[in-house]
Specification:
Layout: H1 2-20, E1 29-30, H2 35-51, H3 55-70, H4 72-79, E2 83-84, H5 89-111, H6 115-121, E3 129-139, E4 143-146, E5 156-163, H7 164-167, E6 178-182, H8 193-200, E7 205-211, H9 226-242, H10 249-272, E8 279-285, H11 288-298, E9 305-308, H12 322-325, H13 327-333, H14 340-379
Parallel strand pairs: 6-7, 6-8, 8-9
Antiparallel strand pairs: 1-2, 3-4, 3-5, 5-7
């Protein structure tokens, strides 16, 4: 999130020489300042590919694209080393509009920056979390395997979050309980990272994954591409809620089946790593909780499912850490806005309580079984 914030500010900063150059009195030279519009466009593309399209990126993209497109002719003249004597009235108007757009985007980014959350993340009390990431290729039908060539497409990304106490040799990894985290279709693992890391810091190993296989695509169109998928689904969800439109049930059922299939893959990887027997809890966002319950029922697993929904103050079901990822939009759409950091801490605490209840029940059952098995021997 901090990288995204700095990247967005950098794009806006690169646009400033372009919009202010028309007010410089000195003329009769090559218009070299316009080259910054190309640099800003390249940074924007790289930022979008790295972090994905989002509402905040869109706020920066509007002035960037506006200034870049309206200065294409000036870019051509710059590359041809043609001198500029006078800026036309149209160029000055475009610059003025560009200044307004940059100011508006800058205000939205800075004004709603989640200062409190990052203040806590930067504090000494906030322990680091190790993240192991594995890219895999394949499909749900044929299975997923480790990538062996750069030509193979990434269709699954598996994550393992490990607390600081493990890689600082303060605690044995084999002694820690395992938590499976399931994002809803509207978000990816990165958009739930604050919550996942908060759960990890409670002394848990957290397993989760993102899937991009074509045979279980969330969207059956070009928009299912990793860069656009979350943004398109979130925009559609917010639009439907604003217009009181109910989500198509067939679509919800299909997503439920997809999430169940995803959870099976994660469970298989947990078995391969020897972690399955230590799974103490499944944390699922929004409708993904239904898929988690389906999975536990089908596999006859006695694993509790902790659902993330509006019962957590300020939380928007299915949208992950929306309060931190999209603070400007969150302020306007949340029924009762609250701090994103506090939300993640509340989730971690409630998840820990749900996990402890399960562990206590398991210990009680184990003790009862041992008593019953010992009682005949005592009679003899």
């Amino acid at each position: 999130m901090r990288v995204l914030f700095l990247g967005e500010l950098f794009v806006l900063f690169l646009l400033l020489p372009v919009v202010f150059r028309t007010f410089i009195k000195k003329r009769n030279k090559v218009d070299t300042s316009v080259i910054f519009s190309l640099f800003a466009f390249i940074v924007l593309v790289l930022l979008t590919l790295a972090k994905g399209l989002s509402f905040s990126v869109l706020a920066v993209a509007i002035p960037c694209l506006f200034i870049f497109i309206f200065n294409l002719r000036s870019l051509g003249r710059c590359f041809q080393q043609l001198k500029t004597d006078v800026y036309t009235a149209g160029a000055i108007i475009v610059s003025l509009l560009g200044i307004l757009l940059i100011a508006g985007a800058g205000y939205l980014i800075i004004r709603f920056y989640p200062v409190s959350s990052f203040k806590h993340l930067n504090s000494r009390e906030c322990e680091a979390v190790e993240i192991i990431k594995k890219n895999q290729t394949g499909s749900f039908a044929e299975g997923f395997t480790q990538i062996t060539s750069v030509k193979e497409p990434v269709t699954a990304v598996l994550y393992k979050f490990i607390p600081y106490s493990v890689y600082s040799n303060q605690q044995d990894e084999n002694e820690l309980p395992v938590v499976l985290f399931m994002p809803d279709v509207y978000t990816s693992v990165s958009e739930n990272r604050l919550t996942i890391e908060s759960i990890t810091r409670k002394g848990n190993i957290v397993l989760c994954a993102d899937f991009y296989a074509k045979d279980n695509a969330y969207l059956e169109s070009f928009w299912n591409f990793r860069v656009f998928r979350s943004f398109v689904l979130q925009a559609e969800k917010l639009k439907n809620e604003a217009e009181n439109i109910t989500q198509d049930q067939d679509q919800l059922d299909r997503w439920r089946q997809i999430k169940t299939a995803e959870l099976k893959v994660i469970a298989e990887r947990a078995k391969e790593a020897g972690l399955f027997e230590r799974i103490a809890l499944i944390v699922a966002d929004g409708n993904a909780s239904l898929a988690a319950k389906d999975f536990c029922g089908t596999e006859n697993l006695d694993i509790p499912v902790f659902e993330l929904n509006e019962n957590i103050p300020g939380y928007i079901s299915g949208m992950g850490n929306f309060a931190v990822n999209e603070p400007a939009v969150y302020t306007f759409v949340a029924k009762a806005p609250s701090d994103g950091w506090i939300q993640s801490q509340q989730i971690a605490l409630r998840a820990e309580k749900a996990k402890l209840v399960q562990i206590q029940n398991a210990d009680a059952e184990e003790s009862n079984s041992s008593v019953s098995s010992d009682s005949p021997e005592e009679e003899f």
